[in-house]
Structures are given as C-alpha cells and as structure tokens.
TrEMBL record:
Location in the cell: Cell membrane
Protein name: LPS export ABC transporter permease LptG
Recorded topology in the membrane: Multi-pass membrane protein
Source organism (scientific name): Massilia niabensis
Transmembrane segment boundaries: 7-29, 49-78, 99-118, 314-333, 345-366, 372-394
UniProt keyword list: Cell membrane, Membrane, Transmembrane, Transmembrane helix
Pfam family, one: LptF_LptG
Keyword Transmembrane helix in record: yes
Family matches, as InterPro entries: LptG/LptF_permease
Length: 397
C-alpha cells in the first residue's frame, strides 16, 4: 500500500504542478498585458510591471490551486484508466474507500500549500506589489470618494492604556490622501458625544502613526463646541434641583478655536486597518479579515461582506478535498467512455462551474443576508453531494 500511495502521489503531484504552472503562466501574461498601457507614466517602467506581476502571483496560486488539483487529479486518474492500471489495482483488492483515503492524504499537502500562500505569502506580497506600483508612478492611493477616505472610530476617555478607556463618543475619520507608507494628508476629524451632538472638529495638514494607538497630527486646527449647560444624553436623569427651561438655548454651544503645531490623537484606527479597508477581501488573510470585521461590528458598520470573505478564506482551501473526490469517478471510466482529453475538458468545466457557483453564492448570501458560514460552505457541500452520487453511479455501472 505504501508503494501504491507513493505512485499515486508522484503522478498526481506532477500533473497538478503542470496544470498550476500553465494557469499561472496564462494569468501572468494577462496581468502583464493589462499593465503595459501604464508603462511610461511617471517612472513606471517595464521592469516595474514585471515585478508587480511577479508579486501578484502568490495570490493567484491561492485562487487556482483547487481547480488545478481537480484537473491534475482527473488527468492522472484518467491515465491510470487508459492504461488499465486502475483496473489492475482494483483487481488487487483496492477498494473505492482505499482510493479515496489515498487521495485525501495527497490533498492534505495541497491544502497546506494553499493555506501558506493565502495566509502567509499573499497578505505580504499584494500590498508590496501595490506599493511598488504607486511609488514608481509617484501616485497615492486612490479613493472611491472625491472627498477621500472615510471611516468610523470610537472616542475613548483618557486612560493609561489609550484606546481601551470607556467609550464617550464617536468620531468620523476623513483623509483626502493615503500615502504608500501609511501616512495621511489633509485630515479631518468630526467628533460627537454619545447623544450624537457635535463636540469637536479637528483638521490637520498631515498625520503619521506613532504606534500604541496614537497618531501624530501636524499643523492642527481644533474647533471645540462647548456648553456647561448642555442637555444631558437621552435617558440620563437631571441633577437634583435642576430643570430644563429652554431646549434651544441649552443646545446652543460656545465655539472655541485653537491652532497648534502638533498634537497626539488616540484612536482605534491604525494604518493596517486603513490599508485593509481599501484592499480586496479576497487578498486579505483570515486574521486581517477577523480584525477588520470586529472593528466594523464595534463601530456598528456593515461587516457581512468581510465575514463571508473570512469564512471563504477558511473553507475554500478545504474544497480541494471535495474536488479531488469529484475526480475519483473518472478513474472508473474506460477509454470507450471518452479519452483523456475529453475527461480533462469535463474537469475544466467542473472547475469553472465551481468558481461560478462559489461566486454566485457569495453575492446571493450578501444580498439575502444569509449566515456567512452557510454562504461559504454551501458550494462545497453541493459539489460533495455530486461527488458521492457520481461514485455510487460508477460503482453500480
């Protein structure tokens, strides 16, 4: 059995590696042709385009590995069927369960490789690729709004541990430009109390992160809206002997403005959160998705897209097991049922179908507010059911 396991592993690994290299070569060529019109703009040269394409390849490995495992396994098993090797193996007491167990052990290697590329390599190379591209062009991170980047933050009371003090309000964080190094240009901060009454407007020419949840603001103008007789927050009882005489007068705030060369701002927002908020969730690690989803939930913002991406990050590599199981029935089909090329074509169609259904469920789950875990696992469960039905059919016929 060890010899047979090694024989399976070598043939399948060679086929999967060949398919993977072919896919990566095709994707790299398409990425390069997409970058060529940008060559010559600023200092962006051809070698920058090549470096950008190379740094984006690890992310493509994560994306195409399940389909490469499917097609490579189909090719190897179809070769066994064509040369009658699989028939001899079955005649030598190899059952379907034993063949499936051998494929499972081979699949573990592919799953581990996929997790390494998805969790360790891609989250580092993708931001580096974007940084190389922007630095060569002399550009900054673009924004989907003309006013720049917006995010929400909590205002915490003064505490020795910074942002872990009690929440006393909320803050809307706006930066017109984000530089590749994480610093901000033209920053505006709108601070509100727990009753959503505006308490401060802070503008700064630039901001840089100092660590420990602290931003260093430069050339700052701070406008404070203060009133000692301001209305209490809704639900808060008035002090003994005090009554409300004029709602309008008490809501009118005094305005005080000051200008300082620099000031420190304690915030939950970090350069990592800003970078993550602008990146494609599919190119983020599960840890980054979990951190950013938690940040969105704490600030009562929509987080469903990132929750779905988180569970897909966990489930998609495991779909390799499902697709390899779906390839096993092809070993039972003899040459008269179709040659190797036909089986590979069918495998490609299955792989494309899996990608389309996986993407379809992600969009349907987002629109229909399905549970994130169900949205991520449903396509794999569907194809696992197809694999079980296909195996039963080939065994009976």
């Amino acid at each position: 059995m060890k010899v047979l396991q090694r024989y399976f592993a070598i043939n399948i690994a060679q086929a999967v590696l060949f398919v993977l290299v072919a896919f990566l070569g095709l994707i790299a060529f398409m990425d390069l042709t997409r970058e060529l019109p940008q060559v010559g703009r600023g200092n962006y040269m051809f070698h920058h385009a090549l470096l950008y394409v190379a740094l984006m390849l690890p992310g493509h490995v994560y994306e195409v590995m399940p389909v490469a495992a499917l097609i490579g396994t189909i090719y190897a098993l179809a070769q066994f069927a064509q040369t009658s090797e699989f028939t001899i193996m079955r005649a030598s007491s190899m059952t379907t369960r034993m063949a499936g167990w051998m494929l499972f052990k081979i699949g573990i290697v592919f799953v581990v490789i996929t997790f390494i590329f998805g969790e360790l390599i891609t989250p580092r190379t993708a931001p580096l690729a974007e940084k190389v591209r922007l630095s060569a062009k002399g550009a900054t991170l673009a924004s989907e709004f003309r006013s720049g980047m917006w995010t929400k933050d909590n205002v915490h009371a003064e505490a020795s541990n910074g942002v872990r003090g009690p929440i006393v309000g909320s803050r809307f964080f706006n930066a017109r430009t984000i530089r590749p190094d994480g610093s901000l240009v033209d920053v505006r901060l709108y601070e509100f109390d727990t009753a959503l009454r505006m308490r401060a407007l802070i503008t700064a020419k630039s901001a840089s992160f100092s660590g420990n949840g602290t931003w260093r603001l430069l050339d700052v103008t701070e406008t404070l809206f203060t009133n000692s007789r301001v209305l209490p927050a809704p639900g808060t009882p008035l002090p003994k002997g005090q009554s409300i005489q004029s709602t309008y007068g008490q809501e009118t705030s005094a305005v005080a403005t000051r200008q300082v060369a620099s000031m420190n701002l304690v915030s939950e927002i970090t350069p990592k959160i800003l970078q993550v908020s602008r990146r494609d969730p599919e190119r983020m690690s599960a840890n980054e998705l979990a951190v950013y989803s938690r940040h969105l939930v704490e600030n009562r913002q929509e987080s469903e897209r990132f929750k779905i991406a988180f569970w897909k990050k966990i489930i998609d590599p495991l779909s390799i097991f499902v697709l390899m199981a779906l390839a096993l029935p092809f070993a039972y089909l003899h040459t008269r049922s179709g040659g190797v090329s036909l089986k590979i074509f069918v495998g490609i169609m299955i792989g494309v179908g899996f990608i389309l259904i996986n993407s379809l469920f992600a969009h349907l789950g987002l629109l229909s507010t399905w549970p994130a875990f169900f949205t991520a696992v449903a396509p794999s469960l569907l194809f696992l059911l197809l694999a079980i039905l296909a195996l039963r059919w080939v065994e009976r016929h």
